[in-house]
């Protein structure tokens, strides 16, 4: 006779194993003890990989639930916070995404992904100029990040600045083979769509 483990129980077990928690996860503050399997940041990596898998499979509610649990275990894990902002964005919770990203921007002013994500969220909310400013800040922090240039390409097109859209498209085209898009970054144009945009904006 086969026995099935409820997903919630399995998830809690995974969190307990990886994080070494000594308190019930669903109630009160979570206390964490160190164990022989590495530092706490290292033990968060398998959980983040599970989150990324949830996102890729469209299981956004599961991704959000796991990220909120990670936050309770390890509040200093701002990589997971960036992933949470992406999940909020993909779910259409733009106000939550903006609030979280503004808090993160204060704590981590030199993080290009945070600035990029905030810019994309603002653009999605219709604040094109404010979004563009954040994206330009992101580009200053990470000049080789072609995904930021993709987002600037999209934003400039929305503003009717097709000359700038074409400029950022060309720069992104040059850089897409030498850099990768971080899993926690939000993008509005995919690399494979660039050839189609070339016809719209000109070579």
Describe this structure in words.
With 203 residues, the protein is mostly helical. The chain folds into 2 domains: 12-24 and 32-76; 94-203, Serine Threonine Protein Phosphatase 5, Tetratricopeptide repeat, CATH 1.25.40.10. It is 66% helix and 0% strand. It is built from 10 helices and no strands. It has helices at 7-19, 40-56, 60-73, 78-91, 94-107, 112-124, 128-141, 146-158, 162-175, 194-201. Helix 5 packs antiparallel against helix 6 and helix 8 (146-158) packs antiparallel against helix 9 (162-175). The chain is globular. The N and C termini lie far apart (64 Å). The model is unreliable at 1-7 and 16-37 (pLDDT under 50).
SSE arrangement:
Elements: H1 7-19, H2 40-56, H3 60-73, H4 78-91, H5 94-107, H6 112-124, H7 128-141, H8 146-158, H9 162-175, H10 194-201
CATH second-level architecture of the largest domain: Alpha Horseshoe
CATH class call of the largest domain: Mainly Alpha
CATH superfamily of the largest domain: Tetratricopeptide repeat domain
The helix/strand order is: HHHHHHHHHH
User: Per the principal axes of the C-alpha atoms, what is the gross shape?
Assistant: globular
CATH topology of the largest domain, anyone? Serine Threonine Protein Phosphatase 5, Tetratricopeptide repeat
Mean pLDDT, as a whole number? 81
């Amino acid at each position: 006779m086969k026995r099935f483990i409820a997903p919630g129980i399995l998830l809690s077990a995974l969190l307990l194993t990886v994080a070494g928690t000594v308190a019930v996860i669903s109630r009160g503050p979570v206390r964490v003890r160190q164990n022989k399997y590495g530092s706490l940041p290292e033990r968060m990596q398998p959980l983040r990989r599970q989150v990324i898998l949830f996102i890729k499979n469209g299981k956004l509610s599961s991704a959000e639930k796991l990220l909120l649990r990670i936050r309770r275990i390890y509040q200093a894990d701002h990589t997971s916070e960036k992933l949470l902002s992406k999940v909020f964005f993909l779910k259409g919770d733009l106000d939550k995404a903006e609030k979280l990203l503004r808090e993160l921007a204060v704590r981590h002013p030199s993080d290009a992904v945070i600035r990029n994500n905030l810019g994309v969220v603002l653009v999605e909310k219709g604040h094109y100029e404010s979004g563009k400013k954040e994206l330009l800040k992101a580009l200053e922090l990470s000049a080789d990040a072609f995904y930021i240039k993709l987002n600037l390409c999209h934003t400039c097109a929305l503003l009717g600045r097709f000359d700038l859209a074409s400029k950022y498209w060309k720069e992104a085209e040059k850089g897409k083979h030498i850099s990768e898009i971080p899993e926690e970054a939000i993008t509005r144009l995919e690399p494979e769509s660039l050839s189609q945009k070339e016809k719209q904006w000109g070579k």
